[in-house]
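Record 1 of the preview.
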Amino acid sequence: MEKEPALLLLPHVVIFPLPVQGHINSMLKLAETLSLATLKVTFITTLHNYDRLTRFTDFHTRFQKYPDFELKTVPEFLPLDHSLGDRLVDLMESMDLVIKPVFRRTILESSPPVNCIIMDGILAFVSEIANDLRIPFIHFRTTSACSFWAYFSVLDIVQVAQLPIKGEEDMDRIITKVPGMETFLRCRDLPSFCRVNDAQDPNLQIITKETRKSSQAEALILNTFEDLEGPILSEIRKQCPKIYAIGPLHELLKTKTQASYQSSNSLRQVDRTCITWLNTQPSQSVLYISFGSITMITKDQLMEFWHGIVSSKKRFLWVIRPDSLTDMEEIPEQFQEGPKENGYVVKWAPQEEVLAHKAIGGFLTHSGWNSTLESIVAGVPMICWPFFADQQVNSRFVSEVWKLGLDMKDVCDRRIVEKMVNDLLVDRREVFVKSAARMAELARKSVAEGGSSSSNLNHLIQDIRKMCMKSQDN
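->
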C-alpha cells in the first residue's frame, strides 16, 4: 500500500519577532490567529521573554488549545538592563553574533520541515538563512503603513538633499519626497532615526536598508486596514506588490475567538486594581496616560505633565513604569501606586481592557502603533507625545490625516498639556469623538467576515498552504 505522508503534513510556519514588547505582542497575536487556522506554528523568542510571558500572562492556558503550536527559545543577545532605544547597531550586531547560528540550527532541526518563515522585517540575518535554505519568507512590519513608507522613502529624501535636518529651525520644513504625504509631512514628523546631522548615520542606514529589503520578500504583512491607510498602502504596493493588511490584529483575533477582550501578551505584571477604580468613574470622564514599554523621560518632563494634568482638573489613570525615568532617577512621591486626589497610578495596566472601558474619555499616548490601533478600535481620541522610531509619523497621521486627536510632539509644557487635555475632553471633544467613532466602526468592519482584513488573512493562509504543497512536491 502506497503512503502519502507529504500531503498529510500541516503547513509549518516559523514566526520570529524582534524580542521586545511591541513586536512580540502583535506577532504573537498573528501566531494565535494562524493556529486557529490549523497551521503548525513555531514562535521563537528569547528565554527571558518566554519567562515573562509565562509569569505575567495566561500564555500556557491560552496556547494549550492549539496542539500544533510550539514556542522555542533563543539566547539573550544583549544584557537584560540594556535599553534598546535608538541603538539599532548594537541590536543587529548582537543578534547576528548570538542568535543567528541558533536560529539556523532550529530551522534545520524542525519537524515537520519549515515551509514558511514570517520574520520581523528588520532582521536581516533571518532572510539570509531563509534564502540559504530556500525557504520562502514573509516580512511582518509591526509599524503603521505610513511609517513603513516613510522609512522606505528615506533614500529618496536624502538624494534630493531634504535630509539631513539642519537644526531646530529646520524642523517644520515640509518633506516632499514621500509619495502620498507631500503636503503635510514635516522634518519633525519623520521617524526619529532621521533626526541626525549625517545621512550616513549607522542607525539610519540600517533601518533604511532593511526596510527596502521588504520588496525582496514573498510578501509583506502589515497590522493595519484599508480604510485607515488605503492611500499609503497603494503607494507601498508599487514597491511591494503583495501586501496582507490584516489589522487591527488584536480585534481580528478577538473576532475569531469570540472573546469579550483579548488576553494580554504583556512582559510586565499588570495591575488590575485600576479596572476596579475605573468601574467607579463616570462614563468617558478619565484620561488614560501611558507612554508604552520603552519611552524614557526626564524628571522635569514628568513634572510638567503632572502639573498640566492636575491643573486641568480631569480624572486620570496614569501608568508610571519604575524604569521610565532617565539617569535612574527615583519616581517622585506623588507618582507612587494607588489612588490620588483626582486619579489613579499603576506601574502597568491591561491596556486593551482599559481603553475599552466606558470610563475612558481620552488617551495621552506615545503613539506606538499597538497603542494607536487599540485606541482606534476603542473609539478613544488621543493626545500624542511620540518618543522615537515610527511614533513621530503615527502622531502626525492621528492629528492631521485621521483627525483622531492632537499632536504634542517635541513640546513638554504644563500650560500646553493642560490646554490639550481640555481640548480633547471638553472644548473640541465632539469633533474628535465623532471621528473616532467612525474609524472604530470601520476597524470592526475590516475584521468582520467579508471585511478587507479578514479577507486578506484568508489569502495569507491560502498562500502559506500553497507554499507547503510546493515544498512537498519538491
